[in-house]
Amino acid sequence: MNSNKQNTSIADASQRKTAIIVGVLFIIGTAAGILSVFFTRPILNAPDYLMKVSENENQIIIGALFMLTMGFALAMVPAMMFPIFKKHNEALALGYVVFRGALETFTYIFIAIIWLLLLPLSQEYVKAGAPNASNFQTLSTLLLGAANLPMTVFVFGLGALIFYYLLYQSKLIPRWLSIWGLIAVALQLATGLLIIFGLQTAFDTSNSIMNLPIFLQEMVMAVWLIVKGFNPSAIAADSAKTEINQIK
After folding, report:
1. What is the span of the domain harbouring residue 48?
2. What is the value of pTM for the model shown?
3. How far apart are CA 23 and CA 12, in angstroms?
4. CB-based contacts of 236: which residues, under 8 Å, 6+ apart?
5. Beta-carbon neighbour count of residue 156 at 10 Å?
6. Per-residue pLDDT tens over the stretch 191-230
7. Nearest to 96 by CA among 67, 75, 110, 69
8. Domain count of the fold of the chain
């Protein structure tokens, strides 16, 4: 009996630590993502962005580093949550790791590399001068277009849908918070469709407004996890299931 209580206590402490780490990772990832936009959007959204890139190389480099920071921070979340989620649905838990742990991280690395490739391209653009600059403009437009593809939106969105469904199913956080996440992700996925049909760009104000709910939700959830942790009753139920399976 004492051994069981001790094991439960250790498990609770481990789950509490996981909740705090996940909350901190969400804050780091979101903050890094915002900073990457802060440093790069005024440059990359300018009509003469190649000239702007050549004049503000450090900002692009800093923005790319923040993009990588966001990718690696958020990639750690699936790794932390997989042992918990697999008790509820191992297939979905694995899918969450694939989408948000691997594919999403790859897309952020891809975007950061494209931003960095614009640096030498912008230098050659300036050297070439206006009459010979069209080729560099075409190439930079293709690169920037690839970086702005809605691929990231869909990869993030599908992974996030799995994440919030598993949270809703497991009751690890209040269900109103999980439902908020599901609705916000659906709205965020809609921006990907609007971009595909040319009704919106990643730099539009309407795009930012439609992404605001998921940003707010993730920050509220992050603070909740740090302060409150996972739902104790849900953790107790998981522990009970584990003990029963071990007995079987």
Report:
1. 11-247
2. 0.86
3. 17
4. 8
5. 22
6. 988 988 888 887 788 988 999 999 999 999 999 999 999 9
7. 75
8. 1
